[in-house]
Amino acid sequence: MSPTLIGITGIVIMLLMFLTQMPVAFVMAFVGFIGFSYVIDINAGLALLSLEVYETLASYDLSTIPLFILMGQLGFNSGISKRLYEAGYKFLGNIRGGLAMATVSACTAFGAVCGSSPATAATMATIGLPEMRRYNYDDELATGSVASGGSIGMIMPPSVVLIIYGILTQQSIGALFVAGIFPALLITLLFILCIYIRCTISPDQGPPGESFTWAQKLKSLLGLGETLAVFALVIVGIFVGLFTPTEAAAVGAFGVLLIALFRRQLTWKGFVDSILETLRTSCMVMMLIVGAVILSKFLAVTRIPFEIAGWVSGLDIPAVLVMSVILIIYLIGGCFIDALAFVTLTVPIFYPVVQQLGYDPIWFGVMIVMITQMGVITPPIGINVYVVYGVAQTLFARTIPLEKIFKGVLPFLIALIAGVVILILFPQIILFLPRLLY
Amino acid sequence: MIHQALNRLSNIMKVIGGIALVGMMLLTVVDVIGRLFQRPIFGSVEIVGFLATIIVAGALPYTYRIGGHVGVEILMQTASRKTQILVRIATRALTLFLFGLITWQMFLHAGELKQIGEVSMSLKFPTYYIAYILGFGLLLFAVTIIETICHDITQLRKGSSK
C-alpha cells in the first residue's frame, strides 16, 4: 500500500471512530500513532509519543492558553458582565428591541475578556433574559439574541481558537487578534440590524423600555472603563511588542482578578470555580493540540496534505471555487464537531492548500473561526442554544422549548452568513488592521 | 478503598495544577513589572514552560473523570443504553492502550533525560524532574481510565440483572 493510500485509510478510520463518541483528541492521537508506526516503524511511533507529548506540553507558546482561559473565567465569575450590560441597557433600552441590542453589544464587550462562546452566552443569558422578560420581550427574540450574541465571543480577541490556529500555522497571534476586531464589530452591527428589522416588522416582539438621562448614560460608561483598559492593555501590549501573548494573558488575567477583588465581586467559591474550569478547559485544549500534532506527523509522512495541495493547484478551476468548497466543509463540520476540535483536526490538511492558492493565512484563520462558530447555534449540537436553554430553565418556572430557541436563532444565522459573504467580498475588513500594524 | 485513594490522589494533582496555574500568572506578572525596572526574573520563560506541563499533568485525571473532553455525540445518542456502555468500554480500552504506551514512553524518556543529565538552558534545572511529574500525571490518568472501565462494567451488570 502506498503511503497516500495508508493516509486515506487512516482518515476514514478516524471519521468512523469519531462516531463512537471517543474524545476527538484521543482519536487523532491514536490514528496518528498507529499510522505513523505503520508507515515508518513501531520504534519511531513510540518515540513520537513521548517526544511530541512532552515538547508540546512544555512549550512556552502554549502557556498562553490556560492564562487567557483563566482571564475569561475570572471575568465570568466576577460580575464584569453585569456592568457591560447596564451600559448597553442605558443607551439602547428605550428603543424598540433595545434590550436585545444591548445584550448583543454586551456580548461583544464581554468577548473582549473572554474567548469562549458558551461562557459568554451563559453569562449574558443570566443577566439579559430576566430583563427582557420584565419588558415582555418575545421569548424567541430574547433567547435567540443571547445564544447568537454569545458566538461573537469567539471572534472577538482574545480568541482561544485563533491562538491555536496561530500556533499550528506559525502565524503571529497578535496579528490574528487584531484581525478579529473588525469582523466581530461587523457581526455585532449585523445582529443589531437584524433585531431592528424584526422589531419593525412585529413591534410587540421587543417593546421599548424606560429611558435614561444623559447623565445616567454617561455614568454607566464608567463601568466599561476597566474592561476597556484590560482589553487595550492586552491587545496593544501584544502588538507594540511590550508583551509576548503569554505575558499579555497573565497581565490580563491578573487585571481582571484585581478589578474583581477591588469591587468585592469575586467570592472564594467563584475563584476556585474559575481555577477548576480553567484546568478542565486547558487540559481539553492541550490534549487536542497533542492529538493534532501527532496526527499531522502521520499525515506529513503520507504526504496527503501536499498531494491535495498539488492536486488542487493543478485543477483548472478558479481558486475562489476551491476556497468556497473548503469553507463549506468548515460550515458542515462546525455543525457536528466542536469548533476548536474541528480547527485542530483540519488545519494540518487544508492549510497547505490555502497557501498554494495564495490566500492570506490571517484572513483564512479569521474566516474559519467565523464559520465554525456558526455551529454553536445550529442544530444538532448548537452548544449555545443548550446553554441558554439550561439557564432559562433555572431562571424561570416555565421552560422555553428548545425549538423556540433554535427558531429565535435563525434570523441571526442569516445575519452571520451575510457577514461571511461580506468578508469574502471585502477581505480588507479582516486584513486592514494587521497590515497597518505589522 | 482503591476508589477513595484514587480520588484523593486525583484531588491532590488537581490542587497542584491549580497552584501551578496561579503561580504561572503571578510569576509572569512579576516578571513583566520587574522588566520595567530592569529587574526581570531570570529564567521565567523556562519556569512558565515547566508550570504549563504541571498544569496539564495535574488536570488530566480530573478532566477525564468529569467527562471534560469533546467528542461527537450524534450517533451514540440514538443507541440503546446497553450499546452506549459497551461502545464506551471499547473506546475507553483504546484510550487506555494509547495512554498506557504514552506513560511508559514518558518514564523511559525521563530516564534518558536523567542519564544524559539534560538541564534547561538558563536555569540549568534538570528537566527529567518535569518529565517524571508528567509521567506520574499520565500514570494516574491511565489508572483513572481503568477505574471508569470497571465502573461501566458494574453498570452493565446492574442493567442486565434488572
Concise structural overview:
The complex is a heterodimer of chains A (438) and B (162). With 438 residues, chain A is mainly alpha-helical.
Would you mind describing this structure in some detail?
The complex is a heterodimer of chains A (438) and B (162). Chain A is built from 20 helices and no strands. Chain A has 438 residues and is mostly helical. Chain A is globular. Chain B contains five helices and no strands. In chain B, helix 1 (2-36) packs antiparallel against helix 2. Chain B is elongated and about 70 Å long. The two termini of chain B are 26 Å apart. In chain B, 38% of the residues are buried. The mean pLDDT of chain B is 91. At the A-B interface, helix 2, helix 3, helix 4, helix 12 and helix 13 of A face helix 1, helix 2, helix 3, helix 4 and helix 5 of B.
**Low-pLDDT stretches of chain B:** none
Low-confidence stretches of chain A: none
Q: Helix and strand succession of chain A?
A: HHHHHHHHHHHHHHHHHHHH
* Secondary structure: number of strands of chain B: 0
Biggest β-sheet description of chain A: none
Distance between the termini of chain B: 26 Å
* Secondary-structure element series of chain B: HHHHH
What is the SS-derived class of chain A? mainly alpha
Name the overall outline of chain A: globular
Q: How large is the share of residues in beta strands of chain A?
A: under 5%
**Most extensive chain interface and residues per partner:** A-B, 57 and 54 residues
The number of helices of chain A is: 20
* Major pleated sheet of chain B: none
For this structure, the quaternary state is: heterodimer
Rg of chain B (C-alpha, Å): 20 Å
Features:
heterodimer, A: 438 residues, mainly alpha, 79% helix, 0% strand, B: 162 residues, 5 helices
Question: How would you summarize the topology of this molecule?
Answer:
The complex is a heterodimer of chains A (438) and B (162).
Chain A: H1 3-18, H2 24-39, H3 42-57, H4 64-76, H5 80-92, H6 98-111, H7 117-134, H8 139-155, H9 160-169, H10 173-201, H11 214-239, H12 245-262, H13 268-302, H14 304-314, H15 319-336, H16 339-357, H17 361-372, H18 383-395, H19 402-425, H20 428-437
Chain B: H1 2-36, H2 44-65, H3 74-78, H4 81-116, H5 128-161
